[in-house]
Amino acid sequence: MKTALESLMPLVRRYRLDDNPLRRRSDRLESAFVAVAILLVVLSAWPAVLAGQAAYRAGMAETRVGPDGRQQVTATLLEDAPPARASFSEVPAQPPRARAWWTTPAGAAHTGEVVAPALAASGTRVRIWIDAEGRPATAPKKPLEIQLRGVGMMVFVVLTAALLASGGLLAGRWLLDRRRYREWDAAWAVTAGRWHRRQRG
């Protein structure tokens, strides 16, 4: 069974830049295209790290807890909560919601719909998250989720660079192949002409 290094050696021999007299100009250009594509992917690592760090910082800013961010308060239901719905069209199914009122830590009163336990009776007290303006907000994301978002952004940048480099390499190789075919056709026409002249002579 071939090792990874043994599998790569034919590609290295094919694209390495050397003094082989059998290598045509188009072969050397293709080797240069491969080198540039690899370099672009390698150079994308630094922008990928920066993008991942930016995504992580943005995620941390979104989940900031405190007076200028999300805060948890107690809300009182003003109506009975409906039963939980099981819907195949909603993945995941939306949790029950009911009207409630609450006050912010600063003392401002608010009313609105909040997520509530299924069939909870009016007057039930539930814990909710609110934003800096006192409106209902989603719970802060867990640190692991934010870290995964940063890693995902890094992978996305590298994969995008790899796809662009691969596309450019394939396009360049296609153009070089067309040029090789024309050169082969021209060389074959010259060889065939010589062969016919020898046959007539």
Structural write-up:
The chain has 201 residues and is of the alpha+beta class. The protein folds into two domains: 18-57 and 145-196; 68-140. 53% of the residues lie in helices and 14% in strands. The chain is built from four helices and five strands, in the order αααβββββα. The protein has a five-stranded antiparallel sheet with strand order 3-2-1-4-5, with no helix packed on it. Helix 2 packs antiparallel against helix 4. 11% of the residues are buried.
Helix and strand topology:
Elements (H helix, E strand, L loop, with lengths): L3 H12 L9 H19 L1 H18 L8 E7 L19 E7 L5 E7 L9 E6 L5 E2 L5 H58 L1
Antiparallel strand pairs: 1-2, 1-4, 2-3, 4-5
Helix pairs in contact: 2-4, 3-4
Tags for this model:
alpha+beta; 4 helices; 2 domains; 201 residues; five-stranded antiparallel β-sheet; elongated
Please give the number of β-strands. Answer: 5
Radius of gyration: 33 Å
- Low-pLDDT sequence parts: none
Strand order of the largest sheet: 3-2-1-4-5
- The domain count comes to 2
Q: Which whole number gives the mean pLDDT?
A: 81
- Which bin fits the share of residues in helices? 40-55%
- The SSE order reads HHHEEEEEH
Q: How far is the N terminus from the C terminus?
A: 55 Å
Structural class: alpha+beta
Silhouette: elongated
Q: How much β-strand is present in the residues?
A: 5-15%
Helix run count = 4
Tell me about the biggest sheet? 5 strands, antiparallel
Brief description of this entry?
The protein has 4 helices and 5 strands, in the order αααβββββα. By secondary structure, the protein is of the alpha+beta class. The protein folds into 2 domains: 18-57 and 145-196; 68-140.
